[in-house]
Write a structure and sequence with these properties.
Layout lengths: L3 H6 L9 H18 L6 H12 L6 E2 L3 E3 L5 E3 L4 E2 L3 E4 L4 E3 L4 E2 L4 E3 L1 E2 L4 H4 L5 E2 L2 E3 L4 E2 L4 E2 L3 E3 L4 E2 L4 E2 L7 E4 L4 E5 L2
Parallel strand pairs: 1-4, 2-5, 3-6, 4-7, 5-8, 6-11, 7-12, 8-13, 11-14, 12-15, 13-16, 15-17
Antiparallel strand pairs: 9-10, 17-18
Helix pairs in contact: 2-3
Organism: Deminuibacter soli
Keywords: Acyltransferase, Repeat, Transferase
Protein name: Acetyltransferase
Length: 184
């Protein structure tokens, strides 16, 4: 029998109010509360708490306030920068490459719900992985939806809603986000 955590990470329907998942979210909320209180603290002090939350955070600079569901499902590469008010719903693996920068209020949503109302009101949730390549810039207020890959060296315009894969080496923007031009 699979646990709700195993189902969640496998992209299957799962019960978010499972005891194990709830315990994991509470632990993350406690660390986030501590982290977000360090808004004026030196980067080193924030890094110690961030490491407890993410498990990996090589030279990450995430400006408080920052919010996530679990933290442990965020795999961040070197030199990550996230500006104020970023949110990562990491119910599935969220992989962020090296040298990624995000403007304020970027939202990364691995979580989603059934489209059919009769199924949705029963309470199950779903999650899909998100992958962001190396050297990506994501403009402020952009939303990255589940089951999306953004290729390396790409720029996502501010306010974009990324609902499908975006290739490497492009500038993409809009709602829904689409490729505007190739970057040489």
């Amino acid at each position: 029998m699979r646990t709700e955590l195993q189902k969640m990470l496998a992209g299957e329907s799962y019960e978010a109010w499972d005891t194990e998942l709830t315990t994991m979210r509470v632990k993350a909320r406690q660390l986030l509360h501590e982290y977000n209180q360090l808004i004026a603290a030196p980067k080193e002090a924030r890094a110690a708490v961030l490491y407890q939350l993410l498990g990996t955070a090589s030279n990450a600079d995430i400006q408080p306030p920052f919010y996530c569901d679990y933290g442990v499902h965020i795999k961040a590469g070197d030199n990550l920068f996230m500006n104020f008010n970023c949110v990562v719903l990491d119910c599935a693996l969220v992989t962020i490459g090296n040298n990624v920068q995000m403007g304020p209020a970027v939202q990364i949503y691995a979580a989603f719900h059934p489209l059919v109302a009769a199924e949705r009101i029963k309470g199950p949730e779903l999650a899909g992985p998100i992958t962001i390549g190396d050297n990506v810039w994501i403009g402020g207020g952009a939303i990255i939806c589940p089951n999306v890959t953004i290729g390396s060296n790409t720029t996502i315009g501010a306010g974009s809603v990324v609902t499908r894969d975006i290739p490497a080496n492009v500038f993409a923007a809009g709602n829904p986000c689409r490729v505007i031009k190739t970057i040489q």
